[in-house]
Amino acid sequence: MAFITMVKKLTRDGQPCAKCRDVEARMRREGLFDQIDRVVIAQEGDLSSEGMRLSEIYQVDRAPFFLVANPSGEVQVYTVYFKLLRDVLKPVKPKQPALSDLLTPEPTADFA
Q1: C or N terminus of the chain, fewer CB within 10 Å?
Q2: Model-level pTM?
Q3: Per-residue pLDDT tens digits for 49-71
Q4: Is CATH 3.40.50.300 the right assignment for the domain spanning 3-92?
């Protein structure tokens, strides 16, 4: 099983960059964020932040990016969320509503 690290950038004012915010929100909406094992911050202006160091090590100049380590320790870098989605993330099946959830206790239509 792969270990997935998300590296997201915080701007100088401490806010996530727009793309990081959008990708994370999408992952949460689609129930995929739980598959991320670790989130690392690349603090804009702080080259010593862990995310900035990882960005340098893996030669990535955009955020967010994802590091996917397989059991043998090899790391694959994903800079495009949709590629990560296609190659790595496991789709979450939407919860099917129970029949009782679809039926209302008091019918509102008049069939008389």
Answers
A1: C
A2: 0.80
A3: 999 999 999 999 999 999 999 99
A4: no
